[in-house]
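Q: Sequence in, structure out?
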Amino acid sequence: MIDNFLTPAAIALFASLVLFCPAPLKAQERLERIARESFDVIPPSTRVAGEPGEMHVVQGACRVGPTHWARRRIVDIATQEWAYFGFQTIDTTKVDTGFLPEGIVADTSNPNIATPRAARQYLRLGEFDSSDELFPTIGGYWSATPNGHGAIADQNRAWAAPGGDSTSWRRPWSAAFISWVMCEAGLGNMLQFERSVAHRVYIDQAIRARDGAAPKAAFVAHNAGEEEIAPGDLLCNARGNADYRSLADRRADTGRFVPLHCDIVVKVDAAAMRFFVIGGNVFQSVSLTIVPGMVEQGRALRPIDEGTLTGMRTIFAHLKLNADAVEMNALDNTPTIRALGAAVRDNVESRFID
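A: Exactly. Output:
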């Protein structure tokens, strides 16, 4: 097993998903999305129209398909967006001296960022949401949510203000990203997945499914370690002052707004005891995070939590997808990663390697 990401051997690098080096790199060029004739995903940018300041939704509908085949599409779609944003990756498995790249300042109000270990270490920087070329993409994510038009209207006002040309998105868009992935993956019926601008809405739906009150829901909520975590599942943690440790904590707050975040599992490496997850608005980008795991007697592999290692976020909810199984290394087999192999063979590895 290779622990350092990005070696000069590019083909082996991509085949092994060893995409990054341990030294901080400048922001990387993003990889264009695969043509629809090869990978049938409608780009989120086509769901909106208009220049910044006048952006509006032109497509709010979603694909509706059977839940059982959604798992691979979820992984494939999330991976393509990660590539489009420039492969930003955060490795939380490495204990270090608290490296932050030049120009990035630790937020001392957030102990998960200010921690003196590499729990938020950048191994590769992607593009941020302040890039005007990404505005339509994030607008497309918002379009998949019932109240996304409000977020876009708010952003239009920010863009139209003096000096607002390159303003980052005013509202957190991580739940919008998850909602768009599920929308495009075929979970377009709200009974399958309750798309929302807030993670709490679909988490609460998965909890109701656990209680038998949402029988058509695609996801069922579990405590981390209760069930095997697989690609296509969601792992959720609390943010801010919320201190959720288990589903019981969320049950007590059902329906109430609490800052939460969920990532999509795209690969599970049981031998190395680590998870690969992709989420939106993670350091202002679509990012892949590598999370260390642990096993307790009689329980499944789960992410390490704050109680075990200082600086880690505690996963209080594992949303298990009720769909056909895929291989645990599904990320490696996505159309995007396969296309990277072809790109390397065509000698375009210079766009990924300094």
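The mean pLDDT is 81.
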